[in-house]
Please model this.
Amino acid sequence: MLPVDHIGIAVSDGAAVERLLTKLADSAPALPEDVDRQGVRVRFYGSGTSLETLEALVADSPVAKYLAKRGEGLHHIAFRVADVQKHFDRMRAAGFQPLTEAPLPGASGKRIFFLHPRDTHGFLVEFCQSEKQYPVSFEQCAELEEIMQKTGYCCPPTQKSSGHVVTTSNVLPEACKSLVLHNVSLALSRVEIHAPRVPTLISEVSKDAHYAQLLGSQWPEAQLVILPENSQLKHLPAILLEFWASMEDE
Ligand code: CMX
Model:
């Protein structure tokens, strides 16, 4: 299934709801943002799948109409996609009528489109392309690539940025922002490593502590992130996304 990016809740007074949601979601909201095109003020709570409160800024906005008709409550569910245009075309080809002629800018720099609730059993559906996408190339990691693409945070590297590389190969690329060695075998420790000067994440290294030490000593400038023992493929997206986000923060 596509990942849920956020759940929208229509509220009469976003500031008043802030105290409740900060407790409930165990996270303070990002600063409120006004989306003039939609006539709403939004606040996002949490990362990953977040909650979004929507309050009306103008009387004839969709949220004002919703509040007048149905009162406060669940307003929409938003799926996160890597390529919003692709899903716009996909939904149209499947016979849905998106509410706009094309995806448009929404809150947090996302590009979004909606389907009418009458076409979706009574709930409003949004598709959004995350504002934060990491350029990643996958080499011989089809299974991991499939999982990572589903997060909606990965896009192919561009020429401008060589991006992050996830590989099971021991032929290591020189130019990349970060290198993830996924499931590399012990064979790697036996070859001479010409390590590229990049921060590095090593996966599933705890299978062999000696191997971690060896790479650590050969690669002193690298930032090694040792994954928990028996960590499974399904845990990697969260770990990788956190790692790449932390690189951006530096
Ligand atoms: N969820 C479920 N049903 C909804 C709904 C919602 N969020 N909003 C409206 N409806 C229902 C109404 O209850 C009504 O149902 P009934 O006919 O059974 O009474 C029907 O849809 C039509 O509603 P309406 O009040 O007549 O409103 P419109 O048809 O003019 O608009 C909609 C409905 C969905 C097209 C409009 O709300 C819209 O364009 N929404 C998308 C934009 C939006 O919601 N922006 C705010 C979010 C911004 C963001 O996240 O960035």
About this structure: The chain has a mean pLDDT of 82. The pocket of carboxymethyldethia coenzyme *A is lined by residues 8, 35, 38, 40, 42, 54, 62-63, 65-66, 69-70, 75-76, 99, 106-107, 114, 116-117, 122-124 (CB under 6 Å). The CA atoms of residues 139 and 167 lie 5 Å apart. The helical segments are 14-24, 62-70, 84-93, 142-151, 187-190, 209-218, 236-249.
